[in-house]
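hey m, so remember when u said the tokens were messed up on ur end? i reran from scratch. heres the input so u can diff it against urs
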Amino acid sequence: MRYKIPNISANLDLNENLKNIDKIIDNLNKRRDAGLDKDLENRLKKHLLISSVYNSNAIEGNKLSLRETEIILDGMVVNERPLKDEIEARSLSNATEYLYKLIDGREPLTQRTLLELHDLLMKNIPNIDGGKFRTEEVSIKNSDHKPIYWADVQDEIDELFKWMNRNMHKYNPIIMCSILHHWLAWIHPFSDGNGRVSRLFTNFFLLQKGFPEIVVKIADRDRYYNSLIDADNGDITNLVELFSDKIRQTVNVYEEFLNEHERLLQWHKKYKQIGSEDYSKAKETFSYEYEVWRNQINVFKTLLFKNVDTLSDVLPNITFYAKEYDILSYSQYLDIMEDRKVSNTWYIVISIHNKENDKSMGFVFYFERFRPTGKANIVEIKSKRPPNIKLFVTARKDQNSIRLERSVDLVNIGTHGDQLSFGVHNRNWDPKLKDKNGKASIITIKENPSKIIRTFLDQILYNYFDVGKKRPITAATRNQGGRTS
């Protein structure tokens, strides 16, 4: 039985997502190429190492907590946990650090490096022959997948590396690493440690290509396993989407560390006598506003998805696809208010397709500082109007952003005090506020958010997908009694 390369669904949103990630990686690498402070680089690497070791082991059933993993990697012992769990944490940490050394030394990804990583991974694990392919049949717990016959493992591994080297130029790196990851998991070449070594293998490939490593978290386990099952059945799209999301999360970690480091340097430059405790207190001046803002933005998301679900039920000819990204963390929230670089600002993408006329459009909700307000710093507000982050909406067609039609009222979503608020074109919302020339200005509406969201959906369906428009009377419709819809 030979591995068959899975299909990737024809998905414009996925293609656009991958192109967007390429730009994000380019921006991140420019900052990294400018040179990182050594202490910052070490702290960043340690953070990712602990997260990677904890989550990768937890997916395989290791019972150590994140804090216990950190303690063990700092050289201490946790007596309450099985010795095997501690050995697994140290071994995976050693293998991951070795991976970093291989990357720094520009070592190619080969069968030899795969075996070396597995050998380190299995170090001190009893009854496991590390660094060697299995010589017996194995089964995967809680899985219907039956790994290939043990005598075929070497041939299939050879084929994997041959295919990788022949086809490297044909695939986006995220697609390529997804295929290689699934292929290796499909082979199941070792008697134990296949999941962990496959994730190490994937990060080796990504780091080689200038991408940051990914961390598949314990919270992603069901999605991760389901994606592998889908790939077993011939479609790798969901695994590509998962790895895309994981790369975005790692970029967020890099940017948060970089921006916080810059913020701290500026603080120390201006206030050399102020310690880290006072700095932390100053950061907290925005924490209450952030919590209110985050909660209200989540209210908007809930209302939007609820109304989209309703439309999906009543409009059989319209297909809706909604994708959600992580809401801004507190550090990202501060970064945007201070005009620091934050790459991943998308929050929601709604893709709509009308089967009747084959029209397709996307609508992206993204975070940005509201420009009429001043930017912030940790010490003070540099404007009489405090900074405000809003959720703006734009249309996407053929992978390009275009401004919404003026006939669509909604402009942005934010908070006003502790309430959800909407920036809308002033037409029928409050005619009294129109200017003397009769041109619509943008006003803030706080009342009846569900109505505003429903109006937005009505307007984009009408303007972009002809839903609700009367059809012109033709000979065909005249013969049907002139019916219109």
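this time it looks ok to me. The chain has 15 helices and eight strands. if urs says something different then somethings off w ur setup not the seq
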